[in-house]
Design a protein that fits this description.
By secondary structure, the chain is mostly helical. 61% of the residues lie in helices and 9% in strands.
Length: 64
Amino acid sequence: MTEILQTIRQLAKQTAPEAISIRRHLHANPELSYEEFETSAFVKGKLETMGLSPVVMAKTGLTA
């Protein structure tokens, strides 16, 4: 296996628990289309903890 593949697999294993936790949270708290205010706030908070500066777009959209 190439070094890059090993690195990708290692990073995937490291980030899997957080990704699973986020997915579970989003699925446990569904919102209607164009009314995803809690989801938007949740994702914005996650992006901010990653050091990003998300910008709200069209009420519930984000860009970072």
